[in-house]
TrEMBL record:
Domain of life: Eukaryota
Protein name: FAM86 N-terminal domain-containing protein
A single Gene Ontology CC term: cytoplasm
Any one GO MF annotation of this record: S-adenosylmethionine-dependent methyltransferase activity
SUPFAM superfamilies: S-adenosyl-L-methionine-dependent methyltransferases
InterPro entries given in the database record: Methyltransf_16 (IPR019410), SAM-dependent_MTases_sf (IPR029063)
Length: 296
């Protein structure tokens, strides 16, 4: 990955590898662009460049720029929304030579405003990889995403033009009307005159399930055992219309995961593990993630 892509991905500065093919002017323009939304990251990148003694012919600009950012702290950045580029591997290529999705998010955030949807969670990245490896499953299907958060899985599906129709849903209506809409725009996915992309609130076991769905997907929606009754009731209702639900779950606590499995079984659903991160080579994902296939 060249340095520009690494910067788009906001790779930790200690892991950046500066390639000789990228001209300094390109790197400079990229840093100036990022400075608009994440000055603290640019400050850290410049410090790294100085520490490594890189770009000796351009040190004036590097030092001058670094000095202007000296007062910027991580606290200034904490409340800011950044734009992160997530790259995915696939045998096909779009947007040049890589598949990627851009997401506005607050990456430092664990939970705010009662929602966990303002950052992308690893379970959704793993589900994205699964989607790309199993495109045939999603081609020309009507898909419902539950608890979409930043919407990365649905945006990837839409970018790849797999689904016929996609319902992108979350229980948080503010997230839908603000951040989710902006993320679709950021990825240049037009929803004008396109009734095939539906962004809507769907609170599990409360709001109406669309009756023309083929597949349900959900990532990191099994984090809280107190929500399992409503979530599993919702999945059961979905299965009156669709064939399967694919739920990507981060295993933070085995008891919580077991409780989710038990709740699905109690309601008469079949649950089967179909993929897990430990089986991947060179995965960049940190916590174990499992994808469950749930059916009737
Ligand atoms: C941990 S986040 C995962 C977001 C996204 N799928 C991802 O993996 O990045 C959980 C999401 O579920 C949503 N959520 C939580 N409880 C919900 C409920 N009862 N009904 C609908 N959505 C809910 C939250 O608003 C949040 O966006």
């Amino acid at each position: 990955m060249n340095i520009v892509d690494q910067l788009y991905a906001r790779r930790p500065v200690e892991t950046l590898s500066f390639d000789s093919e990228t001209a300094f002017e390109t790197l400079r323009d990229q840093l100036l662009e990022i400075k608009q939304i994440n000055a603290y990251y640019v400050k850290k990148v410049l410090k790294r460049i100085i520490d490594l003694g890189l770009y000796i012919d351009d040190t004036d600009w590097i030092y001058d720029e670094y000095v202007t950012l000296l007062n910027v702290t991580d606290k200034d950045q904490y409340s800011q929304i950044d734009s992160i580029r997530y790259f995915f591997k696939n045998k096909y290529e779009i947007d040049g030579d890589r598949i990627y999705v851009d997401i506005y998010e607050k990456p430092n955030l664990i939970s705010a405003s009662g929602t966990t949807g303002f950052r992308t969670w690893e379970a959704s990245l793993f589900l994205c990889e699964y989607i790309l490896q199993n495109e045939i499953l999603f081609k020309d299907q009507n898909i419902l995403e539950l608890g979409c958060g930043t919407g990365i899985c649905s945006i990837l599906l839409e970018k790849m033009q797999y689904p016929q129709k996609i319902y992108v849903t979350d229980g948080d209506s503010e997230l839908i009307s603000n951040q989710l809409v902006r993320n679709f725009e950021l990825n240049k996915i037009s929803r004008d005159n396109n009734s095939n992309i539906v962004l809507q609130r769907l609170w599990w076991n409360e709001d109406k399930i669309p009756n023309d769905i083929d597949i349900v997907i959900g990532a990191d929606i099994t984090f809280d055992a107190s929500l399992f009754d409503s979530l599993c009731q919702c999945l059961l209702e979905c299965l009156t219309y669709c064939k399967i639900c694919l739920i990507s779950a981060t295993i933070r606590n085995q008891d919580t995961t077991d409780s989710f499995i038990l709740t699905t079984k109690k309601l008469g659903m079949k649950i089967e593990e179909i993929s897990r991160t430990e089986t991947l080579e060179n995965t960049t994902l940190l916590a174990p993630v499992v994808i469950y296939k749930i059916s009737k």
